[in-house]
Automatic annotation (TrEMBL):
UniProt keyword terms in alphabetical order: Membrane, Transmembrane, Transmembrane helix
Statement: the UniProt record of this protein carries the keyword Cell wall biogenesis/degradation: no
Membrane-traversing stretches: 45-67, 79-102, 122-142, 154-175, 195-213
Organism, scientific name: Aeromicrobium alkaliterrae
Protein name, per record: DUF998 domain-containing protein
């Protein structure tokens, strides 16, 4: 009887998420590692925010497992695509920030008012950036194996641009809106209405992009052979 082996991408996902997860677990348990200010990080709202981000971190591992496995190709698209879309919006800006900060040596730089030590920022952002790379590899491989040949280069570029743009706008607007509404020590600045408009705009852009992708995939699949349509393709997002 053969043993099932973990995909190298899943192993990589576990490795790169571990530093972030351990730090969050420490804070949830009441630890103060890496925290400079005594009044920072306390309260139920901050505990809930740490719990939510830890859950998202663990969800990424599950998502990579689903995307990199053979069974993942049989999952409905409405299970695979939304979490990948949210992760794209949250992690892509982190990759850009880390890419800019590393050559300048500012990844661990903090000011006198920072509530956290510099190594915390380095740990968190490096972990998140590595997670983004692993997820991107898994997601691209999944899309190419599942829907290869259905997009032209032009339409594929437009879909990717819409996907990334809408996810960044919606995800970070939602995150800033949560920080604005909740009584936490992290204030993004600006009125909540601005973030609400950004969230709605990102969602609308995403829906339009998915409708374009849905039409493109449906046309391509039906043109090739209706009997070979993928039961998990976006054209069936609204079905069981």
């Amino acid at each position: 009887m053969s043993r099932s082996r973990l995909s190298p991408l899943v192993v990589a996902a576990v490795v790169v998420t571990t530093p972030y997860a351990l730090l969050k677990l420490s804070w949830l348990a009441g630890g103060r590692v890496g925290i400079v200010q005594d009044d920072f990080g306390g309260g139920l709202a901050m505990w809930g925010l740490n719990a939510a981000t830890l859950a998202m971190d663990l969800t990424l591992v599950a998502l990579v497992a689903a995307l990199s496995g053979e069974r993942g190709r049989r999952l409905p698209a409405w299970i695979v695509l939304p979490p990948a879309w949210v992760a794209t919006g949250l992690l892509l800006p982190v990759v850009v920030a880390v890419t800019v900060a590393l050559p300048q040596g500012t990844l661990t730089a903090t000011d006198a008012d920072s509530p956290l030590r510099g190594w915390v920022f380095a740990t968190v952002y490096s972990s998140l950036a590595a997670q983004a790379v692993v997820l991107a590899v898994a997601f691209v491989a999944h899309v190419r194996s599942r829907w290869a040949g259905h997009w032209s280069r032009l339409s594929g570029t437009a879909i990717v641009a819409t996907w990334c743009g809408s996810s960044i706008i919606a995800s970070w607007s939602a995150y800033a809106l949560v920080l604005t509404v909740l009584p936490v020590d992290l204030e993004p600045g600006g009125p909540a209405a601005t973030y609400a408009v950004g969230l709605v705009g990102g969602l609308v852009l995403a829906v339009l992009g998915m409708r374009i992708a849905d039409h493109r995939l449906r046309s391509a699949v039906n043109h090739d052979d209706p009997r070979r349509s993928d039961p998990g393709a976006p054209r069936r997002l609204g079905t069981r």
